[in-house]
Design brief:
It is a single chain. This protein is of the alpha/beta class. It is 33% helix and 26% strand. The protein has a seven-stranded mixed beta sheet with strand order 8-7-9-6-12-13-14, with helices on both faces. α13 links the parallel β21 and β22. It is globular, with a radius of gyration of 22 Å.
Length: 446
């Protein structure tokens, strides 16, 4: 079958493409911007890519067109598909019918920690010899991939609450048929598609409604929004963090902790990750792995070899004691917990936080009253103000004693002027951020 994918270069759609190719289909695709690393990954798989949306790419017509959720009415290819009545579907719906229907799906949902927790879980299953498939919104460094079909029925998926497509406004995760479900947390996000937190709760409730009675949901008992979702109805077994499961920090930075189940010690994890938020992610992954028959002891051993996914507190360079990290920041809570983990690790050493408020929610100003407060654990904060920001970042930064720039070159010069040994530079953005990471590394190296 010839499958053509519109919007192929995003992590999710690129993963769909890789899976479709592995299943033996002819796969082609297009995107507005076709560039590495995704273009390189897809090209290695033998997937033909087209830059832009000229309708010639749909001639002759493919057997089906998978339309990414970034596509909207007015796109030339979208209009052509509709006018010519070409068969089309969404990525999540295609995945459901072509792979997940016959799989034991382990889904990871929540506002924060989905990519990291799903990566942990996939690695726990791999370490235990289960050879799972997975589709995760980041490169899982233990595998060097973001997606594969696997060799057993087990499939780990990052279950995003974002909408499915322009023609299907349900959350992606309602298509995923989970049997094991992790709900990490729940806060307001994605203000571009959800009116308020209640609208997101409704989607999470829909997710619980499709979890079979033989399934299991794992969630933190102290999360108030998830408590309300659970109260709306639960027809499956459940286990909770701060209920059935818990932990004890042995190292303040979370690099070593004890796993507790029913108040009984199960062993100690000594690993490369840091931050109490990652400890919680790990407990949820251990609990999910136990649901498919993996012992806690095996999961603890596996975590000692776990490598955090790319762009999740990824150490990019260490130049004469100046460490540069890349983190996929998108929400004040995630920023605060990430900085807290770094502070616990480095003690009184200087931390510079560099933030680009790039997500749609940040640009709209939904988090403007909590965003700067989430950065206070840093010794110095450098903010980048994009042209299309819908709120006065410069004004608020000045009140908070933080620096605001509209040019990344100026940020780099500021860092160079104040560099000292034993310094930690945390760069946070959910985009490329004008390649500031590599430019700063090159400047410091020189």
């Amino acid at each position: 079958m010839h499958i053509h994918i519109l919007g192929i270069c995003g992590t999710f759609m690129g993963g769909i493409a890789a899976i479709a190719k592995s299943l033996g289909h002819q796969v082609t695709g297009s995107d507005q911007h076709v560039y590495p690393p995704m273009s390189t990954q897809l090209a290695k798989l033998g997937i033909e890519l087209t830059q832009g949306y000229d309708v010639a790419q749909l001639q002759p017509a493919p057997d089906i067109v998978i339309i990414g959720n970034a596509m909207s009415r007015g796109n030339p290819c979208v209009e052509y598909v509709l006018d010519k009545r070409l068969p089309y579907t969404s990525g999540p719906e295609w995945l459901k019918h072509n792979l997940l229907q016959d799989s034991w799906v382990l889904a990871v949902a929540g506002t924060h920690g989905k990519t990291t927790t799903a990566s942990m879980l996939a690695w726990l299953l791999e370490y235990a010899g289960l050879k799972p498939g997975f589709l995760i919104g980041g490169v899982v460094q233990n595998f060097g991939l973001s997606a594969r079909i696997g060799e057993t029925p087990f499939f780990v998926i990052e279950a995003d609450e974002y909408d499915t497509a322009f023609f299907d406004k349900r959350s992606k995760f309602v298509h995923y048929l989970p049997r094991t479900l992790i709900l990490n947390n729940l806060e307001f996000d994605h203000a571009d598609i959800f009116e308020d937190l209640n609208a997101i709760k409704k989607q999470f409730h829909h997710l619980l409604r499709i979890l079979p009675s033989s399934g299991k949901v794992l969630w933190p008992a102290q999360d108030p929004a998830l408590q309300e979702v659970i109260k709306q109805g639960l027809w499956s077994d459940s286990e909770t963090l701060a209920g059935d499961w818990d932990y004890r920090l042995i190292a303040a930075d979370g690099s070593k902790f004890e796993v507790l189940l029913n108040n009984q010690s199960q062993g100690e994890v000594d690993w490369q990750a840091m931050g109490e938020h990652n400890v919680k992610n790990a407990i949820m992954a251990i609990a999910a792995a136990r649901h498919v028959g993996i012992s806690v002891a095996v999961s603890i051993a596996a975590l000692s070899e776990f490598i955090s996914p790319k762009r999740r507190m990824e150490l990019k360079a260490d130049i004469a004691g100046i460490k540069i990290y890349d983190d996929f920041a998108h929400h004040p809570t995630a920023i605060k917990t990430t900085l807290a983990g770094l502070r616990a690790k480095v003690g009184k050493e200087k931390i510079i936080a560099i933030l680009e408020p790039r997500s749609n929610t940040m640009k709209m100003g939904v988090h403007q009253h909590t965003l700067l407060d989430s950065l206070t654990a840093a010794d110095e904060v450098l903010l980048f103000e994009p042209d299309n920001l819908g709120w006065p970042l410069q004004q608020q930064a000045e009140k908070a004693g933080m620096h605001c720039f509209n040019d990344t070159a100026a940020i780099i010069q500021h860092v160079l002027a104040g560099r000292v040994a034993q310094q930690h530079i945390l760069i946070m953005s959910n985009g490329a951020f004008d390649n500031i990471h590599q430019r700063l590394i090159s400047a410091l190296s020189e």
